[in-house]
Design goal:
Blueprint (H helix, E strand, L loop, with lengths): L1 H4 L16 E9 L2 H10 L10 H5 L10 H16 L3 E12 L8 E13 L5 E11 L5 E12 L1 H4 L3
Antiparallel strand pairs: 1-3, 2-5, 3-4, 4-5
Amino acid sequence: MGELAKLTGKNNYFEDFKVGTVIRHARGKTVTPLENVLITNLVMNTAAGHFNEHLMQGSPVGGVVSYGGVNFSLVLGLASQDCCENALAEVGLDGIRLTKPVGHGDTLYACSEVLETQDSEQEDAGIVIFRHYGYNQRDEQVAQIDRKVLLKRKSHWADQ
């Protein structure tokens, strides 16, 4: 187990998260046609507004709108290094809210709030419920997701 612990951070085990803590994640990610169009097509979403630039140029939005599944997935990914790097299991996603459209060229950022911590049936892990918020480059909230994760306990997994 010691070798695996070297691959992850030292401050993101179950015991490190306290209810009310807010984490602003350092990275941002610009949404490109690669993510949006590829994933939209891979999941067989046929809404032309996600991939038809010509059609959407004349729309009130003025361009392609990124598929919501891409948007909240990017927010989850941006939060993962700080919050879920020591996860044993993704237990659930709830309360997904997409609050503003995202287009190609928008850059997403994330912050997370610890809503709840609870013991699990596993001695070596506990459950943390995070609320992840996604923001664009104008600091407008574009997404909110509640995520329940089974995280390793430092007392069992970390090198002491």
